[in-house]
Design a protein that fits this description.
With 506 residues, the chain is an alpha+beta fold. It has 4 domains: 22-130, Beta-Lactamase; 151-261, Beta-Lactamase (2-Layer Sandwich), CATH 3.30.450; 281-380, 2-Layer Sandwich (Beta-Lactamase); 398-500, Beta-Lactamase (2-Layer Sandwich). It is built from 18 helices and 20 strands. The protein has helices at residues 2-23, 44-50, 54-57, 63-66, 73-86, 128-150, 174-178, 182-187, 190-193, 201-214, 258-280, 309-312, 317-320, 323-339, 379-396, 417-423, 427-431, 447-458; strands at 28-33, 39-42, 88-96, 102-114, 117-126, 154-161, 164-170, 218-226, 230-242, 248-256, 284-289, 294-298, 341-351, 354-365, 370-377, 401-406, 411-415, 463-470, 476-488, 491-500. The strands form 4 sheets. Strands 2-1-5-4-3 form a 5-stranded antiparallel β-sheet. It has a 5-stranded antiparallel β-sheet with strand order 7-6-10-9-8, with helices on both faces.
């Protein structure tokens, strides 16, 4: 008898222990009558979640009071019939609290018999967070697909396993970009591989394998032969990651860059053409910004630079050029800024091979706010001008009258000071349309043409004649004229030295 009591107490203790254990379980636990759907037992979690007291629930409430998906006994009995066959089921449904709040649950139900009655053990897990995550995943997937479809390129994923390639996702733009339906690419990626331009195949696979091996970003440009559009340039950018099933998966996008490539080719041709032109310019071509900083320097002859090209770039001309030359450059920039251009300012530089003279031409690039400057080396011109200036001075101090005459018109293009003094005319008068016939009475009536013939005949050896010159006041005096014939730029000239014949000369 004592043993029976002890055994009974032990069983009751275990029951209390199980009851306590089920009350600390997070999931809701129900014991339900299979015949009536009434609750026989609910744990504390079920009571709290549904906002009913335990006494309320086991005092006459049923599944129909908390589950909107089981509104009637007929539906419940059908469910019980299925359960009698399968013994255990797992499915999703909804629970409704006392305040009317509905939330999704995952139910695991098991049918067993107790004292000849069918009883159902139901464990309900609140899956609100899981459902929210699933909905968020679905939303994000839809969002990503929408972004992929609106992207100007193609988004996708590509798996590489043991050297084999397979697409796992391809956006709808593939039909336009590649001329292939996305599903066809997913089912048979070779349909895309066959489009790659033959000369680019090896390069594409090599860059892909290197990216997969080192898990580096895959960036490449290659050509395909589009079924309808012909040869097209593509750019791919993709980041590889280890694939759970082995190998590597690439996530990325592909763009059609044919227009960009065409533009680059045109620009390259233009640059080659411009550089070809620049390379033929013997002078200095410079680009400077608004504060005088050298941005670019082009020249065939770096000996004309005051410093090495690399030393000039980024420096201001005010800090490089001697003060007089810098002032000329500053004035030239001021004129270009006001007028849009400047022409003809001259400065000199002392370079290793001597003094060089430069003439500046500058134009302003309004859009870029920079200045393109051509510095033309005019050293030879300046030296020639110096020689000519010296020669002109020597001719002016000569005691003989000297004339430079254009043979086809007989007009003067140069006279020295002695000629002006003897004839009484100013240089401006003589050079402003006057001719030999205006000072030599003997050259009238067509005799000038005969003189021109003789001058040509004797050439630069000189033709000597005696004639007379008439001054502005009308005085006539005898002269001996030695004419030297020469041609310049296709025109005929006579260089005439005139000596006055005095009585003592005869």
């Amino acid at each position: 008898m004592a043993k029976d009591v002890e055994q009974q107490l032990k069983i009751e203790n275990i029951h209390q222990l199980l009851t306590e254990a089920m009350d600390v379980v997070f999931d809701s636990i129900f014991l339900i009558s299979a015949d009536t759907a009434n609750f026989i037992y609910v744990n504390q979690a079920a009571s709290t979640k549904l906002e009913y007291a335990t006494e309320e629930m086991i005092g006459g409430m049923s599944v129909f009071d908390i589950d909107p998906d089981f509104p009637s006994l007929d539906i419940w009995q059908k469910h019980v019939c299925d359960l009698k066959v399968l013994k255990s089921l797992q499915f999703e449904t909804r629970h409704k609290s006392k305040s009317g709040y509905c939330y999704p649950v995952e139910l695991t139900v098991t049918l067993f018999q107790q004292l000849g009655q069918d009883v159902i053990l139901a464990i309900a897990r609140d899956i609100s967070e899981r459902k929210a995550c699933e909905e968020n995943i679905i939303f994000r997937e839809q969002e990503l697909r929408a972004l992929a479809e609106s992207s100007p390129g193609v988004m996708g994923s590509l798996v590489m396993q043991d050297g084999n390639l397979a697409a796992t996702y391809v956006s709808q733009n593939a039909l336009d970009l590649f001329g292939i339906f996305p599903n066809k690419m997913i089912n048979n990626f070779q349909s895309f591989q066959q489009l790659i331009y033959p000369r680019d195949v090896r390069k594409v696979y090599k860059s892909l394998e290197n990216a997969a091996k080192n898990l580096n970003e895959w960036c490449d440009e290659f050509r395909i032969v589009h079924p309808n559009k012909g040869l097209r340039w593509l750019e791919v950018k993709s980041k590889p990651q280890p694939y759970p099933q082995g190998g590597v998966i690439f996530y990325g996008h592909v763009y059609d860059i044919t227009d960009r490539k065409d533009t680059e080719d045109s620009l390259r041709l233009s640059l080659d053409f411009n550089e070809g032109i620049i390379s033929t310019i013997p002078d200095l071509l410079l680009e400077i910004d608004h504060d005088g900083t050298y941005l670019e320097v082009w020249t065939k002859n770096e000996a004309l630079l005051i410093a090495q090209r690399d030393e000039l770039i980024g420096k201001k001309f005010q800090d490089i050029l001697p003060p007089p030359a810098a002032e000329v450059a500053r004035q030239t920039m001021k004129e270009a800024n006001e007028q849009g251009f400047s022409v003809g300012n001259i400065y000199s530089l002392d370079l290793p091979d001597g003094t060089h003279w430069f003439e500046l031409y500058m134009t302003k690039k309004k859009a870029a706010n920079t200045y393109i400057t051509l510095a033309r080396d005019i050293t030879e011109k300046k030296e020639s001008e110096s020689i000519l200036s010296t020669l002109a001075k020597a001719l002016d101090i000569s005691s003989e009258s000297i004339f430079l005459i254009k043979l086809d018109t007989g007009k003067f293009v140069y006279v020295n000071d002695r000629a002006c003094q003897k004839l009484g005319y100013s240089k401006n008068e003589l050079l402003d349309g006057m001719a030999v016939v205006d000072i030599d009475p003997n050259m009238a009536d067509g005799l000038w043409s005969e003189h021109v013939r003789k001058t040509r005949e004797f050439g630069n050896g000189g033709a000597s004649i005696e004639s007379h010159h008439k001054t502005k006041t009308g005085n006539v005096y005898p002269v001996e004229v030695l004419s030297h014939y020469f041609e310049f730029k296709g025109e005929e000239f006579s260089f005439a030295i005139t000596h006055e014949i005095k009585s003592s000369d005869s």
